[in-house]
Known about the structure:
Chain A: One of its GO terms (molecular function) is 6-phosphofructo-2-kinase activity. The complex is a heterodimer. Chain A is α/β, with parallel strands linked by helices.
Amino acid sequence: MRGASRSKNTQDLDKRVCMTNCPTLIVTVGLPARGKTYISKKLTRYLNWIDVPTKEFNVGQYRRECVKIYKSFEFFQPDNEEGLKIRKQCALAALNDVRQFLTDEGGQVAVFDATNTTRERRETIIRFAEQNGFKVFFVESVCEDPDVIAENIVQVKLGSPDYIHCNTEEAVADFMKRIKCYENSYQPLDEELDRDLSFIKIIDVGRRYLVNRVQDHIQSRIVYYLMNIHITPRSIYLCRHGESDLNIKGRIGGDSGLSARGKEFAKALRQFIQSQNIRDLKVWTSQMKRTIQTAEALGVPYEQWKALNEIDAGVCEELMYEEIQQRYPQEFALRDQDKYRYRYPKGESYEDLVQRLEPVIMELERQENVLVICHQAVMRCLLAYFLDKTAEELPYLKCTLHTVLKLTPMAYGCKVESVCLNVDAVNTHRDRPSNVDVSRLPEEALLTVPDHH
Amino acid sequence: IACLCEKGNKQNDLFSDIQNLQMSSKILVGKCSNLTLIVMVGLPARGKTYISRKLTRYLNWIGIPTKVFNVGEYRREAVKHYSAYDFFKSDNEDAVKIRQQCALAALRDVKNYLTEEEGQVAVFDATNTTRERRDMILEFGAENGFEIFFIESVCDDPNVIACNILEVKVSCPDYQDCNKTDAMDDFKKRIECYRMNYQPLDPDQYDKNLSFIKVIDVGRRFLVNRIQDHIQSRIVYYLMNIHVQPRSIYLCRHGESQQNMQGRLGGDSGLSTRGRKFAGALAEFVEEQNLKDLKVWTSQMRRSIQTAEALNVPYEQWKALNEIDAGLCEEMTYEDVRERFPEEFALRDQDKYYYRYPSGESYQDLVQRVEPVIMEMERQENVLVICHQAVMRCLLAYFLDKSADEMPYLKCPLHTVLKLTPVAYGCKVESISLNVDAVNTHRDRPEEVKRGPSILIRRNSVTPLTSPEPNKKPRMEGLDDPIIREVTPAQLTLCSASHTTLGCLICPALSSCFS
């Protein structure tokens, strides 16, 4: 997670996965409107979520900083000397920032997002990487499907700052000419000529892949991730189980069934799903009674994932916050100090949850329309992935009972719609109190505990 | 496959729990997966059988019932005595017929495994080098509702090929009466028989709509086309992580700990005096092995870290390698457990694999926890893993293809290093005791234990399976009988609709399938 610095007992060594000690420079390759920035951003989000500090460097952004006002495609013409000079400077500036991120700022992966369509440019980058001890991995996107390209342009180019003063037709016409400027000098990665490089060539938005010389674990994870994502329009629905008996009593964890209002929610959920008229909806639950009972009311097939079970509160299972404060005041304070990394004694932390949920995320990427009926902490983790939240924010994301979040991937991110199904429920959200010191008074600790019976 | 989803609708009673177990393996891969037929493609000595077996082991490990059907074995059953490479010549009519029969028999068993025997993935291990043959298999798949995924291994490096031949061909039953040179010679001529008619998968034209991975030069490059579902994407991920570089995996436990000496479970104590002695001995042992680039991994528990410290080399800590969490029983002796939790104690003996300590873990949980470690071990070369008894049993079970049932009773004594070296199609194990005394922490399976159906099986959890034995005696209906015979419905499914007349078995189109 971004902002999740190493925990105490890892010393200088990576604890979870055998990451290479060498930072990695991912280099995108491809004509404009081939999804390079989409891939860069998604990959960056994924790597940060699995605790690999990653940052993207988009050369287009640097160019926009440099040349405040974009005039037309002519800037990109291969014989525009002034343009060429500026573009080269921008690339170098970006590479400089890459070096700083990977060498001085503890970054582990940098994504260099630009067209990089000539062998010459790629050679420059390779030399740069060698000088600095970075490994290089190319991600090329090749696509000739005019529909896909047109859709890309509409989704992300028209709204770009470059075209802020143009109408749609003008923007599209100019952008197509821009692509043409690159086409003539485009030298795609070649099986023979580039056989010593490490790369993945993504063809036709994932219909086919060519993978060459994967060097290490992080590259193999990246390849696996890239082979599982797609751009087919779809929506992901996230919600919690209906209100449970333990919820009403203000107790955490456990494996209780639905309360009367929880059952009402399940019915309301059924109606909601039907009204949405979703094609081929998959429904997933955890293996705990309350999510299963919620799904049962939908009357459709569903799958149970153990990985979706709620965070294990260990010795605090089924206790009220008041009881936790009474029996384990120090633990309670420690949790408030670092809720992401704090692990319940004999239980789990949010950090553990993220690791547990990785296969779920991977499968969510593969799927199309999915409804996930899960739990508060789990839902926060999933939401943080899709909305690119930091480790600090994650444990405090608001995931209220009886509310469905509809996530629809859009351009480079995710649109969120929050749908409250109008069935009352207790509030289970506990904000971070202002005093997190171990020496605080019980009242201070319990200040933010939500009401319960 | 729809029945898994339907079961979610019924009340969760014990009966459906047990029934769910049958289906449960599908959950880990997240989807009600289709039945899949993996079809190997490639000239002889390209590693098809190596890949088939390793992949099968992995899929069974993650709970997906998988089995290999090696056509060569069927042929060896049918033709008891292999004479020479001439058998494989495409103009050897008698041989062509036999080979065609063998392939059909294997496909018949594939169908049986997937439809009658609860198999989920079948690996059809043969050369399958011609389009006609692959088209026939595609039809077979379409008629039976199997997803087809091709794995082609392409390699022209003469060193790799010679190495393969030496490792696995020269000692195979075909060549038991030959010397190495003759065997090598004959095998090379065998390869030539296939090469003439070899039509590799063509991603640009003919095969562009098929789902496949082309493995080029032993994993230097991969071409992946049209992955259909999760299981295929998992397979591709696995194939991209395995390699054939010679290397060794060293598994051992931490040195004897203070809790070990007291006969206590779990905890996070430090090494005893003897444990420290072992760490020193381990350091010497590692030096003697003279390894290039040894990676050392430990868990995050004190006893394994202290052991690694003595080696004076960089090491990495994996949380996933921590010992099984004994929950409420942590730090108790077995006697304490028997006294305080007699029911639990009995349950554990009844089914040690599934049994989960109250507020703790089971071996089954361990298997899931340890999967990324295994994947990384596949990627790596020389590795020393300093872990714990239950975890080591888990890792060992994977590499030595042991079942869930055997896993909790594998012997992993303190102060002993197990050296695993991949060899041919399996793993050679050497057990090296470092001659430092330690307590014995192994508890054998108790004799008097009622073994009924397990009541501890958790809904939708995964059971690693062992790779099933290949069909030793493939049923070859009377090879002595005339080739033309009644076309029974079973055989009809192997033929395309246009070949439903008697005599289809020798129709020209079909006979060329089995070159």
